[in-house]
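Final paragraph of the annual report: two paired records, presented back to back.
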Amino acid sequence: MEMLKKICVLLLIFAGMGCFSACDEDQNCRKERFVAVSADIKKVLTDPQGKRSVSPFQVERLTLSGLNNDSILYNNAAVSSLSLYLKNFSEETQYRIVLNDTIDTLTIRHRNTDSYLSFQCGCIMTHLIDTAFITGHFIDSVAVVNKQVNTQNAKNIELYKHYKSAVGN
């Protein structure tokens, strides 16, 4: 019986070594295994006639952290786009966004799905965004432009700041 245990342990060790070498050769293991929501910040300018134009908007001082935790993803950064990670074991993720000393809370409701990569490399968690909304103190509105959050790095969310143009501009 003791010999059988030793053989099993050796087999597990060799199988583990085989897994690591197979993962090195497997294309899926070299892919990004973490997925993130890609969010762009946009400026919406409405002229006196009501015509709107949308353009990228760079915020000079943005601090972004997870709500009810101590993770800081951006600290006084100048950004026009964000990468946000969703909670794998919850269907709601919230972020505290401080923009030029104004605080907004971004809430993203989502469904989580384990996606199989390979036997050697396991699974990754992908998400499907149901809704997203913001408190509206600095950022006025949010739109979900692509609900699928996976390793494709597609834009998922657009955050809008609205401005009215002056007469004569």
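The closing record of the year follows.
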Amino acid sequence: MAKKELSKTEEMQAQMKDLQMKAEKEIDKVKKDLEKAKGQVEGFVKKNPEKAAMISAGVGVALGAVLAALLKGGKKK
């Protein structure tokens, strides 16, 4: 019985190592994708500083409105 439990434990450990390796590969892929996106954003900002500023301002206004609505919604008079 102990051998069966040991083999199941070893099998689970092997599966966990496999999953860990797959997760690490995916994390590396995501990191590379984020670096690429960061470079694209930086390039856009350098080429279009006015547009970038307007987009940033729009996102800030939208987030502020959502935050204000959430905070205001919790308080009833």
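The chain has a mean pLDDT of 90. This concludes the annual technical report; the extension proposal builds directly on these records.
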